[in-house]
């Protein structure tokens, strides 16, 4: 897993899972705490995430809210969009362009 960027936009790639969760949490919290306005997470390079990785995203979302910021997900891969819809988190998280629930293939 890698995260590149600054306090306004981060690009996340690789796997966001139990092995990378602690490092990702540290980077995301630092970015949230060190900036102002929206923090955009570009997920276009993300191969996969598990429940732990999703928990890291939700933790960053809550932390951003407490800091008066908003976490915005950009370029969410289709398989991850399905997970967000299945868990109904697409209703809570800010997703650039939204998720076209009707266009997602049924699983």
From TrEMBL:
Which superkingdom? Bacteria
> What PROSITE patterns does UniProt report for this protein, alphabetically?
STAS
What InterPro entries does the annotation carry? Anti-sigma_ant, MlaB-like_STAS, STAS_dom, STAS_dom_sf
Looking at the record, the residues that make up the STAS domain are 1-107
- What PANTHER family does its record include? ANTI-SIGMA FACTOR ANTAGONIST TM_1081-RELATED (PTHR33495:SF2), ANTI-SIGMA FACTOR ANTAGONIST TM_1081-RELATED-RELATED (PTHR33495)
The text of the family note is: Belongs to the anti-sigma-factor antagonist family.
- Name assigned to this protein: Anti-sigma factor antagonist
């Amino acid at each position: 897993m890698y995260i590149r960027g600054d306090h306004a936009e981060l690009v996340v790639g690789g796997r966001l899972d139990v092995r990378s969760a602690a490092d990702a949490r540290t980077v995301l919290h630092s970015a949230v705490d060190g900036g102002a306005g929206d923090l955009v997470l570009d997920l276009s390079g993300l191969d996969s995430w598990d429940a732990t990785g999703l928990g890291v995203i939700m933790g960053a979302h809550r932390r951003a809210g407490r800091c008066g910021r908003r976490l915005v997900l950009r370029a969410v891969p289709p398989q991850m969009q399905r997970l967000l819809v299945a868990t109904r988190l697409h209703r809570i998280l800010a997703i650039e362009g939204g998720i076209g629930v009707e266009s997602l293939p049924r699983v």
